[in-house]
Structure formats: C-alpha cells, structure tokens
Amino acid sequence: MSVSAVSVLAAPTILSSVSAICPGGSSPLLVNPTAGLSYQWFRDGQAIGGATTNVLSATQAGAYTVRIQTPANCTAVSAPSRLTTFTPPSIGIIGEAQICQGSSTSLTLSNTTISTAGWQFSWQRNDATVGTLPIYNATSAGTYRLRITDARGCTAVSSDWLVNEVKAITVQMTPLAPVCLSPATPVSLSGSPAGGVFSGSGVTGNQLNPATAGVGTHRLVYTVTGSSSCLSGTATQSVEVRPLPTITLPARLTTLAGTPVMLPGPEGAGFTYSWNPPLGLSDPLIRNPLASPGQTTVYQLQIRDRFGCLVEASVLVELIEPIIKLYVPNAFTPNNDGNNDTWMLWGIEGFPQIDVTVFNRWGTVIFHSVGYQNPFDGTYKGERVQSGMYTYLIRYDAKVDALRGTVMVIY
Length: 411
Description:
The relative contact order is 0.08. The protein is rod-shaped. Strands 1, 3, 4, 6, 7 and 8 form a six-stranded mixed sheet that branches. Strands 10, 12, 13, 15, 16 and 17 form a six-stranded mixed sheet that branches. Helices cover 1% and strands 42% of the residues. It contains one helix and 39 strands. It folds into five domains: 66 residues, Immunoglobulin-like, CATH 2.60.40; 74 residues, Immunoglobulins (Immunoglobulin-like); 70 residues; 69 residues, Immunoglobulins (Immunoglobulin-like), CATH 2.60.40; 79 residues, Sandwich (Immunoglobulin-like).
C-alpha cells in the first residue's frame, strides 16, 4: 500500500503598518503573494467587492480578513486585522492678536497635551507655508493657520488666527503751568489718547486738588492700557504747587470820625492789592490806603502775588466817639515859620496820660511821649525828618481802642 504526501494550506498573515485610518485616507493591507492562489478580502465578515488581490487599500474602520484559495478549491482565512478611524486632536493657536509695527509675536500650539515629537508642523500665513517649527515668530499681519501631521500622514488643522498690525500710540499729557495752593480751585487734567488714568499726589479722577497735593513739585502720571503693548503707554510731567501769599490783618482798627486811619496791607514782591468797598478810601488799589469811612465798615483785601495766587482777609474799621473830644490833625508844617510848626493835638487836656507814638515807613519809632507836653516837631535824633506820611498810635482812653492813623509832614 502506497502513502501519498498531503500538503496543508497555511492561513495567510495580514501585514499592516498602521492600526488607524486617517479621516479621508486609506491604510494598505497585504499578504505575501503566492503563485496560483486567488484572494478575497472581507470587512466585518462581508466580502468586499473587487478586493481579489493580495493588497487592499482599506478606507473604513473594521475587522479585515483575507481568504486564499488554491485551484483545487482549498481555502484558508487569515486572522482579523483591526483598523480604527484616527480622531485628530483639537488644536488651536496661542499668541497676540495684534502686533506693533516693527515687532513680532510668538505663535504656539494651544493643546499642551500634544508632544511636539512625532508631529510635523506647518505654519501658514494667508494659505502660504511660512514655518515648520513648533513655534512661529509672526512679524506681519495676516491670517495664520497651523497644520500638524503624524507619521501616518494624519493631520489636524487649527482654526484661523487673525493677527493685525497696529501703529504704536504716543501717550501725552497736556502741560500744566504752576498752580496756586487753593482748595476751592481744582485743576482739570487732560491727556491723549483718551481713556487713560491719571495718578499722583492730590489726583482724583481727572482733577488735581492743589491743597491735597500740598506746596512743592509733584509728579503726575497718565497711563493708557490697551489690548497690546503698542496700544499702551505712560506719560509723566511735574507740576509745581505754589504757596498763597501771606496776609495778616488786625481784626479791628478804631478811629475818630473824620480822622483817617491807614489800612495795614502786607508788603510783598509783585503783590497787587484791591480793597473793597472802595468808599472812603484814598486809593483802593494800593497797599496802605487811608480809610475815612462815614460809619463802621469792614474792608476786604484781595492780594495777588506775581504768580496770580489770590488770598483774602478783612479788617473792621470802627468809628468811635470819645467822651471828651480829641482832634488829631492829619498834617503839620515844621518849617519854623511860626504856623503849625508842631503837631498839636486838640483836647488832650482831658487825657493827661495820653500816649503818643509816631513811626516811619519802616516801623521805626521816631517819636514817643506820655502826656504830650512837648508835641512832635518833625525831628528825630536832632535831625529833621523827611517830608512825607508817618503812622501814629495814640492811646488816650482805656475804654476805647487806640487810635491809628497817619500824619503828613510838609515843608
């Protein structure tokens, strides 16, 4: 009895380099070719029409098998080779949406879970490829897009990222002249472009309060904060807060009816004066006018210094009627002609302790007498005083305030 050799048809092995199919793409599946065999490919158990060679270009996910068959109708089926559909990762772009002229912004991949290894990068600007590195330094305006590709050729594409190029702004503050220390006069601040914020000592909103800032030089800042560095910036300037003029007036002056009294305005370089009301004043625009009011009057003094800083104060000029009349002449002529050579005070016999003091324009006492037995003769230390106006202070009655006024020495 003879024995025949029997050959067994081995099941084929499907060869594939990938396990997933890119969307819209394909994955090649193959088995090693053998002469005389026929082939039929299946997906999920269903025969694929026309798939009768040892190579299949798979375009759908599924379990793929291949059946081989000999001319003698012997068959063998491969083990399944499973393919999935590749799901591209969601990617986006991170970077500035605006760049300044002459500057740049770095564009990067937004999805930090994706490793840059194993992916090829393609940066596009206005549909033209401009870079292939994970980070792109954009120096021009345009529509940017990122495409990443893995080793299988599967890609993920970002949404468009619009970069605008803008001109850098120039932040400016309107210059400020020196201001006066006046709490009732806030100073308005302005800057460009609009919409910024002012800061500094004494600043509230867009106003500077000099009284809050205080006397001195202060730094003011105007800050504009935009959507990018070239739409942001600051401007600074210094402003000087000047002190107000110093003014001190007595609360009250007393004088006899018909006897002028000098209003004691303070002296200062560049001061201008304005006394109100002007009625009864020798000149309302000088420092020390003579006041001859017809009744007790409050005089208001306004002083402006050379910088225009304004200050105000007031003094009460009270008219009094002494129990015994005292007449104080407002001039005399010590020229030794026998007429009015001394400053005679009429009615002093009723005031034996009358105290008379005469001052020159610098406040120096040039005459003083208690009792006034020897009237003022227009001399000081044996020398004739100059012709002009002199201030006097007469204390004659403890019940009333001292008399203040001026006497004219005339030659």
